[in-house]
Amino acid sequence: MSDTSRLMTDEALQRCSSCTDCSLAETRQTVVIARGNTEAPLMVIGEAPGAREDATGQPFVGRSGLALDRLLKEVGFDLERDVYICNAVKCRPPKNRRPKRSELAACRPWLDLQLDLVNPEVIVLAGATAVEAILQIKGGMSQLRGRWQSWNQRAVMPVFHPSYLLRNPSSDPGAPLDLTRADFSAVRRRLCER
Ligand code: SF4
């Protein structure tokens, strides 16, 4: 993408902060767009902002975000340089319910702009909602996680959502945390081998 195109895409994305294209606009405090590097090789897509994200305008800054950051750092990613983090839906659903299909569809143009802007080599989909949003696959994360997928000529890795890991904190071999470490290690290896 040329510098001019990048600038235009970035400007278009900033309009997201005043979006009212679905009913989540009525209850949100802040539109939560992204954090990280817009030129990162890795893009992590989660579900939707929670309370802390809604209050701060930053994605993945609560306990789930700390868990995600820890996993990324453990396998060697520099959070400022290597990663761009966002959600499939940019406004907090009331009571942290799952986003509806109509809300995912309404928010998709913003996600597409982010994908255009960052043009990541690898995408990590954190949780079933992100998998549904990008791959249009519905299913249990136990079956989906850890298996490379392809989307628009990009490598895609579904992983457990960090909030699931907080509810299942065991470090035993084969437990969700252990499996997710292995998934992020596979992502790191893939990017190091390129
Ligand atoms: S969730 Fe997305 S589509 Fe809905 S109001 Fe927020 S930014 Fe707009």
Task: Explain briefly what this protein structure is.
The chain has helices at residues 3-14, 51-56, 63-74, 101-118, 128-135, 141-144, 162-167, 176-193, and strands at residues 35-36, 42-46, 83-87, 122-126, 149-151, 154-159. With 194 residues, it is an alpha/beta fold. The protein has one domain: Uracil-DNA Glycosylase, subunit E (3-Layer(aba) Sandwich), CATH 3.40.470.
Explain what the structure shows:
The protein is globular, with a radius of gyration of 16 Å. Helices cover about 45% and strands about 15% of the residues. A 6-stranded mixed beta sheet has the order 1-3-2-4-6-5, with helices on both faces. Helix 1 packs antiparallel against helix 4 (about 100-120). It has about 190 residues and is of the alpha/beta class. The protein has a single domain, classed as Uracil-DNA glycosylase-like domain (Uracil-DNA Glycosylase, subunit E). The protein has helices at about 5-15, 50-55, 65-75, 100-120, 130-135, 140-145, 160-165, 175-194; strands at about 35, 40-45, 85, 120-125, 150, 155-160. The protein contains 8 helices and 6 strands. Iron/sulfur cluster (SF4) binds next to helix 4.
Number of helical stretches of at least 4 residues: 8
Q: Give a short account of the largest sheet.
A: 6 strands, mixed
Rg over C-alpha atoms, rounded to the nearest angstrom: 16 Å
Number of extended strands: 6
CATH class: Alpha Beta
* Secondary-structure class: alpha/beta
CATH superfamily: Uracil-DNA glycosylase-like domain
Which spans have pLDDT < 50 for at least 5 consecutive residues?
none
Looking across the biggest beta sheet, what order are the strands in?
1-3-2-4-6-5
